[in-house]
Write a structure and sequence with these properties.
The chain has about 900 residues and is of the alpha/beta class. The chain contains 23 helices and 42 strands. The N terminus and C terminus are likely disordered. Bound molecules: 2-acetamido-2-deoxy-beta-D-glucopyranose (7 copies). The site of one 2-acetamido-2-deoxy-beta-D-glucopyranose has 4 residues, from loops.
Length: about 900
């Protein structure tokens, strides 16, 4: 025999092995038969499983395929299923199988796993390892699965073609393993809880069908990788949190469906996307896309929505200044902040970070301390009136573009505290350039880690160790010294100028009560670094006294010092909320009066002329109504503006309606809800009544409805409407955040009337009834848009009861009341504006419903001597005329006894006198 086994022995061993394995199949199949009910035809243990329904065996009587789809099977699969080592196909989809999924590891012949539409409860770790022949994995619609990560062990399955795992409770990131799948065509992972960004290995993959839509928390990061997915036909990325711009998709010539809606995409829609040859269907709504409205060919079904930030409602180029600023934003990767703040086609219309002169030319761009990364766009050079450019304290890289030296009006450019490099362009001597805090400025930093080519033998060479620098240490030191000297000289000169101006300025202040002094003392810079050095930005404005008209006797200007003091220097603990346009702080005056201070970011209203701003403040501070949050005063501090409002102790309606548990509030009763609705209707009706249509609410939604301790509502954040060229009033509207509340006609015509508010009010009524948000991304598509869904329910009233907020649990009488409000909500959200009632009608409908519970004394609405038939300019004139004689505010406040109408806190006047006359 020797050391080699004989052929006979080998054969014997082999047959023993085979029979043992076959025996294993019997055991597993018996266990299988015993575990599922109802037992499929012929499945009884002990009989030859190769004859069982849906089972196929190979020539060795080993199970090769089990196929029992849609057999209403329940029960659990045997955990040792993977001892069926010859299995190639397992099709058990659309049953009611539950329990843990068996492990399939090491089933090296398994090609197809269909387990979708079942009730499995968990997936064991490593369940899909070693599946070297796998082509199809289908696990979609297993909603009972405990959260599990995407099976990264699939990287072994280099033959995989299709992965379906939508609605399967997968959480965590998508692993970067797609380079292993040259044949993958279908990846469907919709409706899971995937987070993180798209994996880089999507680049170059052959995926055709990419469904990653509707993740619970949302996928994040850019979608740039799509540009390298040349095979894609369907891209469904909607309802996530993707950011950044839509990439160039010119390589994706087969792409027919591009669903990008409901993300946070910014930037200009690239021409390569608009002209995609196979495109049939594209949705872009509910992003913050910018630039020209994209004009797709007629053959494409397009949905753009109303909440993007396109410069116009019609296609065509943007205003040149707008186009330039968009290019500037592009170099910064189109940050969300800019996409939200820069809407419309006029860069001088309240664009944050931008200041204009009276001729509508941008004179200042202030990006200081915004956390921006990216580069400085050479396009700044197109802003030919630019005087000041603040880019300091960001994370900017690259060079200072040479083109900036051509700006004829430039006085100051501050790029301090970034990561800029390269040679400094030579500016005119009158330009103040601040570059401190850029460790590589003046150095050539190669794009990638190229080694310095020379000078390796210099004795001090190694200690220099400047990686990638082609400039010798001596040159660098020289440059640094030169820059330092330059900076010192600039500082000295500006300090001199500053002292001069300061003396001049203070000399002008005669009447400390005039209010002008407040604004001027604030000019002492504290914004742009370099303590003690004035900001040109701030001092420039005050050099022309006409630019800061004084509110004579208006007494609504409040100093920044007072606001600092009462908000504990804008401390974190005092933050009441954050909006798109700034942070709201709580403050307490020394007499105990509480206030809310809205600090608009970096001059959120920046470009609005002071005259206009103050005129608006002058009017708004006089609009007092029991159901409107009162504006008590304002403060201008350099580029920054602060608005002071009455404080509302119970937060906003959204917190009580949607997040009450989280905030520890009791749920609102129906009675409270109707009362709130009536309060809101009355507040908005009053706004509409003022000078006809000159007031319209800008942004009517639950977070702008504030509550008092007794759950009465006041409407916040309304604005003044400007006189449009056609003599009609239009609203200065900022539509950020109004998802779901915006009437359809806005999309078509951009027209804003009081009926826009009526529509939004109708949506709020629906929210009060259902307890659901206007836009609820956690709901399936057909239910996510409240108005659409609710209006469908209204067609068949039988469904209404099911749609009511479960915490309400109405009795018959309450249900009756809910039906009335539901009907009103339906009318308010009519598609055609003229079919919607006015707010007065809403008041009439809601009034009796409230009084059913609580007979209330007749509230005569407070018009405060504002003649409803006066035009807005007339009213303004009259108010201004009255300013000197009887200050209307005190008349109004003190003639009222109702505590719910706030008087201007007396604390202001005192603080103002004592604090600011220095
Ligand atoms: C799968 O195979 C590998 C190597 O062949 C082995 O180490 C591992 O234990 C096997 N796993 C199972 C669950 O059988
Ligand atoms: C099984 O899942 C289906 C669909 O996911 C679901 O409708 C059904 O209620 C579940 N059955 C059980 C018993 O959990
Ligand atoms: C989604 O997953 C994250 C963790 O990745 C978790 O914090 C969050 O609660 C999950 N959300 C839901 C709705 O399951
Ligand atoms: C995709 O891969 C190509 C080739 O490797 C590369 O040039 C390109 O930059 C990559 N695209 C992205 C978005 O990563
Ligand atoms: C476009 O996509 C939407 C949403 O997936 C779908 O409802 C619609 O039918 C599609 N239209 C076309 C022309 O494919
Ligand atoms: C900036 O000016 C240059 C030269 O006049 C012009 O070619 C370019 O289109 C302008 N860019 C923008 C964004 O207006
Ligand atoms: C710059 O980026 C780094 C990390 O990328 C970050 O930690 C830092 O806060 C950023 N600095 C500024 C000023 O935004």
């Amino acid at each position: 025999m020797g050391s080699n086994p004989s052929p006979t022995l080998l054969l014997l061993l082999l047959s023993l092995l085979l029979s043992a394995a076959a025996g294993d199949d019997q055991a597993v199949m018996d266990a299988f038969a015993g575990a599922v009910t109802p037992a499929p035809t012929g499945w009884s243990s002990g009989t030859n499983f190769c004859h069982w329904l849906g089972v196929k065996c190979d020539t060795n009587n080993r199970v090769s395929s089990i196929s029992l789809p849609s057999k209403s099977l329940s029960g659990k699969l045997p955990p040792d299923l993977n001892s069926l080592s010859q299995l190639t196909t397992l099709s058990l989809q659309n049953n009611r199988l539950s329990g843990a999924l068996p492990s399939f590891s090491n089933l090296s012949l398994l090609q197809s796993i269909y387990l979708d539409s079942n009730n499995f409860t968990s997936v064991p770790p490593g369940a899909f390892s070693g599946l070297t022949s796998l082509q199809t994995l289908s696990l979609s619609d297993n909603l009972d699965l405990a959260p599990w990560p995407f099976p990264s062990e699939l990287k072994d399955s280099s033959s995989i073609v299709q992965i379906y795992a939508s609605n399967a409770n997968i959480f965590g990131s998508i692993p970067d393993i797609f380079g292993n799948f040259p044949g993958l065509t279908t990846l469907r992972l919709s409706y899971n809880n995937l987070t993180g960004s798209l994996p880089a290995s999507f680049n170059g993959s052959g995926i055709q069908n990419l469904w990653l839509n509707n993740q619970k928390s949302g996928l994040t990061g850019p979608i740039d990788v799509l540009s390298g997915m040349a095979q894609v036909t369907q891209v469904w990325l909607q309802t996530n949190k993707f950011t950044g711009a839509i990439p160039d998709l010119s390589a994706c010539t087969l792409l027919s469906e591009l669903q990008l809606r409901d993300n946070q995409l910014t930037g200009i829609v690239p021409p390569s996307v608009i002209s995609l040859p196979s495109l049939k269907n594209v949705t872009l709504q509910n992003n913050k896309l910018q630039g020209p409205l994209p004009k797709f060919p007629d053959s494409v079904q397009v949905s753009l929505g109303t909440t993007n930030s396109f410069c116009k409602n019609t296609s065509g180029d943007c205003d040149p200044q707008v186009a330039t600023l968009l290019e500037v934003a592009g170099a910064l990767g189109y940050p969300m902040k800019l996409a939200e703040a820069w809407t419309g086609n006029n860069a001088c219309n309240q664009w944050t970070f931008v200041t204009c002169d009276s001729g509508g030319k941008v004179i200042t761009v202030n990006f200081a301390k915004q956390g921006f990364s990216g580069t400085i766009s050479p396009a700044f050079a197109n802003l030919t009136s630019l005087k000041e450019l603040y880019l300091n304290d960001n994370n900017l890289t690259g060079v200072i573009p040479e083109s900036l030296t051509t700006l004829p009006q430039l006085k100051k450019i501050d790029v301090s505290n970034n990561d800029l490099s390269g040679k400094l362009p030579v500016f005119r001597s009158s330009v103040s350039l601040i570059t401190a805090g850029n460790k590589n400025i003046g150095k050539e930093v190669p794009a990638s880690g190229g080694a310095p080519g020379s000078g390796s033998n210099s004795p001090s060479g190694s200690s220099g160790g400047s990686k990638g620098s082609s400039v010798s240490p001596g040159t660098v030191a020289g440059l640094v010294i030169a820059v330092l000297v330059f900076v010192v000289v600039v500082l000295y000169v500006s300090y001199k100028c500053y002292m001069k101006r300061r003396l001049r300025k203070f000399g002008k202040v005669e009447n400390p009560e005039s209010g002008s002094e407040i604004m001027k003392t604030n000019v002492i810079g504290d914004l742009n670094g370099y303590a003690g050095v004035p900001s040109e930005l701030q001092s420039q404005s005050s050099s022309d006294p006409n630019e800061f008209p004084v509110l004579e006797g208006g007494n609504v200007a409040i100093s920044i010092q007072v606001l600092r003091q009462v908000t504990n220097n804008f401390s974190e603990e005092n933050i009441l909320g954050r909006g798109g346009f700034g942070v709201v702080y709580k403050g307490e005056l020394h007499d105990g009066t509480k206030i809310a201070v809205k600090r608009m970011e970096g001059g959120a209203m920046g470009t609005k002329g002071m005259n206009e701003f103050q005129a608006e403040i002058a009017v708004l501070t006089k609009v007092r109504h029991r159901h409107l949050v009162a504006l008590l005063g304002f403060c201008v501090n350099g580029n920054e503006r602060l608005l002071v409002y009455e404080y509302m102790p119970q937060g906003h309606l959204g917190q009580h309606l949607f997040d009450w548990q989280e905030h520890g509030y009791p749920p609102l009763t129906w009675k409270q809800r109707v009362t709130i609705a009536l309060d809101v209707a009355r507040g908005v009706e009053y706004l509409h009544s003022l000078a006809q249509t000159s007031f319209i609410h800008r942004d009517l939604k639950p977070s702008n409805i504030l509550l008092s301790d007794d759950k009465r509502a006041k409407v916040a954040d309304f604005g003044l409407v400007k006189n449009a060229p056609d003599g009609k009033y239009s609203v200065e509207t900022r539509l950020a955040g109004t998802f779901g509340y915006l009437a359809p006609e806005y999309a078509v015509t951009g027209r804003v009337t009081t009926k826009i508010d009526v529509y939004a009010f109708g949506v709020i009524l629906m929210e009060l009834i259902t307890g659901r948000k206007a836009l609820d991304e956690t709901m399936p598509d057909e239910r996510s848009h409240l108005v659409t869904w609710f209006r469908r329910i209204l067609i068949n009233k039988d469904n209404l009861r099911k749609s009511i907020d479960p915490v309400l649990d109405p009795n018959d009488e309450t249900y009756e009341s809910i039906c009335r409000v539901a009907e009103l909500a339906g009318h308010c959200t009519a598609r055609e504006p003229h079919q919607r009632p006015d707010m007065g009608h809403a008041v009439n409908v809601l009034g009796p419903l409230v009084e059913q519970w609580k007979p209330s004394c007749h509230e005569d609405e407070d018009t405060y001597g504002i003649d409803l038939h006066m035009s807005l300019p007339q009213a303004l004139q009259r108010w201004q005329a009255n300013e000197g004689t009887s200050t209307m505010i005190s008349d109004l406040s003190f003639s009222r006894t109702q505590a719910s109408i706030p008087a201007k806190p007396s604390g202001f006047a005192d603080s103002f006198d004592s604090m600011d006359c220095r």
